[in-house]
């Protein structure tokens, strides 16, 4: 199974390079670019799910029996409710940024935009953020780049939060994580080698110097002028976080968002007796490791995290399976698939609700500020 994981990581790395290349190409729509943006994530999701079930030892009937016999769906319901609360808090946090830009959509519309974002990402990965930006910008007749900049700041805050949690997690569990990564084909050593490569940093510096030269040498060129305008709008939406009123409330909502996510996973662990036993034996460290790994897995281009999330969860539970009798690969797979399955179903329901509300509001009255 470890060989499967290593080959899959290599494939994902190459596919990410292809996606990056497509984003750097012309903005003109082409079949190849569309295929890379939307086809590749779908292939990754399907491929990872296929690998999850391709093992001859997997018994679907046995997995269903585990769910029927051991799952306490009351904890799963709490898991879903906390996930919804996190999305509502995210809308409240974004509202603070938008008000600082004098963009004032109703809170209800912001909640719908967040609901719709995750639902769109199920079908078109990475397009959900663009959709919510366009929806709010069009509804409020606001500059798209400014709204998009505020969304980028919103997502950057999440990235920084995950990195902080990763660093905090490595304090109690770093040795165990390094040992596992070392057994998985030297992944940690290769990452360190790449980040420490003079060639990589030389290329980064050369690219930044070339961009700076072009902007200074040809400031009046129409393409450069357009890029400056876009960058200015993005920066306006991004930098408002530093100067806006309500920064304290913004930080509180950030804490509430991630507290909901962590407690949501805690509730999922409590739904199964063996994963609950992991919490009893290993404490919050096990929960933190699994949470960070699954959060990082959401960065892999896929449809709503389907596939990468399960792999990351199984990976995390494997680190703590030795002290829990019965926590087999099949049990971990059952747990991961059920949690991801009910969350995906929730996002589908949210999407139907969101776009139904939007369609009804358009039919009732024209969009206006």
From TrEMBL:
The keyword Transmembrane applies. InterPro entries: L-PG_synthase/AglD. The keyword Transmembrane applies. It is found in: Cell membrane. Keywords: Cell membrane, Membrane, Transmembrane, Transmembrane helix. The chain crosses the membrane at residues 35-53, 73-89, 110-127, 159-177, 198-218, 224-243, 250-272, 278-299, 311-329, 335-360. This is UPF0104 family protein. The lineage of its organism: Bacteria, Pseudomonadati, Bacteroidota, Bacteroidia, Bacteroidales.
């Amino acid at each position: 199974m470890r060989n499967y994981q290593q080959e899959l990581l290599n494939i994902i790395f190459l596919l990410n390079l292809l996606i990056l290349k497509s984003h750097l190409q012309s903005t003109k729509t082409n079949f190849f670019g569309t295929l890379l943006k939307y086809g590749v994530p779908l292939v990754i999701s399907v491929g990872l799910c296929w690998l999850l079930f391709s093992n001859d030892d997997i018994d679907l009937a046995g997995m269903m029996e585990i769910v029927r016999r051991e799952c306490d769906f009351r904890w799963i319901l709490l898991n879903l409710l906390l996930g919804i609360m996190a999305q509502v808090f995210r809308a409240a946090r974004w509202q603070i940024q938008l008000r600082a830009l004098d963009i004032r959509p109703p809170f209800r519309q912001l909640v719908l935009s967040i609901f719709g974002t995750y639902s769109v990402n199920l079908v078109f990965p990475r397009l959900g953020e663009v959709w919510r930006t366009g929806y709010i910008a069009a509804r409020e007749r606001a500059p798209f780049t400014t709204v998009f900049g505020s969304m980028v700041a919103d997502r950057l805050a999440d990235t920084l939060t995950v990195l902080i949690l990763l660093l905090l997690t490595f304090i109690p569990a770093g040795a165990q994580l390094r040992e596992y990564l070392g057994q998985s084909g030297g992944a940690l050593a290769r990452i360190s080698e790449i980040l420490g490569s003079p060639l990589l940093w030389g290329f980064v510096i050369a690219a930044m110097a070339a961009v700076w030269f072009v902007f200074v040498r040809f400031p009046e060129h129409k393409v450069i002028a357009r890029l400056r305008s876009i960058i200015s709008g993005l920066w306006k939406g991004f930098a408002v976080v530093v100067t806006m009123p309500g920064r304290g409330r913004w930080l509180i909502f950030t804490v509430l968002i991630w507290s909901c996510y962590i407690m949501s996973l805690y509730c999922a662990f409590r739904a199964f007796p063996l994963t609950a036993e992991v919490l009893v034996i290993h404490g919050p460290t096990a929960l933190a490791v699994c949470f960070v790994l699954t959060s990082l897995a959401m960065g892999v281009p896929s449809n709503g995290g389907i596939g990468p999330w399960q792999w990351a969860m199984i990976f995390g539970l494997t680190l703590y399976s030795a002290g829990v009798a019965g926590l087999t690969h099949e049990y971990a797979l059952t747990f991961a698939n059920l949690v991801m399955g009910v969350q995906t179903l929730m996002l589908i329901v949210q999407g139907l609700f969101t776009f139904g509300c939007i369609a009804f509001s358009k039919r009732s009255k024209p969009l206006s500020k």
